[in-house]
Amino acid sequence: MDNPLLQARPDDPIQKVHDYARDLAYLSISSALPSGSRFHATDSPHEMKTANELITQFKDKWGRGRLSRGELESPDPNILVSFGYLNRELDQYQIPIYIVTQKAFQLLERPSAAPNIFISYRRQESSAFALLLEARLRLAGVNDIFVDKNIAPGDDWEQVLQDNINKSQILIVLIGPKTLNADSPHVEKEIAWAVASGSRLISVWHNGHLMKNEKNYPSVLAQKQFIVVEQETAKHYETAISELLNSLGYRTY
């Protein structure tokens, strides 16, 4: 498991809540919290006096000081309670005790940094699948996703596509029977741009289409990981999407 404490603190306030909860869970599972998954409001990881390297990394990232004084870069713990990442109890002196929840620990099952993804497809064949895949990726916690609906009127669409592929870590290409036809070279261009930029390439074959003759397709497709939607049913699309999410490090249940 990568150490999420080494990731930069996000600026987005919602993402801060998720990342802070994940970091607390990481401290707990790494035995850096003296009381396991519990801490007092007056003795939080922000002010623990210890030589533990993880606690130091946590302070460097989220700040040092009292939770109650508003001095920190971290979200208010009561916001984490609202999100379900912390439970709140009171001790005998009515001082809050916070307990890291199972929901927070589940954040550790995701990659510590979500990838930047470009979805390549032919509209006539794969529009619905592309939008479904985008929705499932966002539900899993991937927010940096480019699909061609993001191109604004008046933009140089080909340049926008190439620029976004160049900054993407992963290109997911959806391939149906007519996707790679000679009369529509756009998807092949996007594959070539992805190869040139060093992006990871994952192809998903659907609509009854399989790689039956490798000579008819870009050679890189046969050399890279691919996923097949075995049948045109909701169950088989769900299986393919789960396989894709698992390959990206996201667990499915």
What is the element layout, followed by pairings?
Blueprint: H1 13-29, E1 38-40, H2 53-62, H3 77-83, E2 86-90, E3 96-100, H4 102-106, E4 117-120, H5 123-140, E5 145-146, H6 157-166, E6 170-175, H7 186-197, E7 200-205, H8 219-223, E8 226-228, H9 234-247
Helix pairs in contact: 6-7
Provide a count of the helices: 9
| Fourth-tier CATH superfamily name of the largest domain | Toll/interleukin-1 receptor homology (TIR) domain
CATH class of the largest domain: Alpha Beta
The parts where pLDDT drops under 50 for at least 5 residues are: none
Rounded to the nearest angstrom, the distance between the terminal CA atoms is 20 Å
Largest sheet: 5 strands, parallel
Q: Which fold does the CATH topology of the largest domain refer to? A: Rossmann fold
Give the mean pLDDT.
88
CATH architecture of the largest domain: 3-Layer(aba) Sandwich
- Principal-axis shape equals elongated
Order of helices and strands: HEHHEEHEHEHEHEHEH
Structure summary, number of beta strands:
8
Could you characterize the architecture of this molecule?
With 253 residues, the protein is of the alpha/beta class. It folds into 2 domains: 105 residues, Arc Repressor Mutant, subunit A (Orthogonal Bundle), CATH 1.10.10; 131 residues, Rossmann fold, CATH 3.40.50.10140. Helices cover 39% and strands 13% of the residues. The strands form 2 sheets. A 5-stranded parallel beta sheet has the order 5-4-6-7-8, sandwiched between helices. A 3-stranded antiparallel beta sheet has the order 1-3-2. Strand 4, helix 5 and strand 5 form a beta-alpha-beta unit. The radius of gyration is 23 Å and the shape is elongated. It starts with 12 loop residues before the first helix and ends in a 6-residue tail after the last helix. The model has no long low-confidence stretch (mean pLDDT 88).
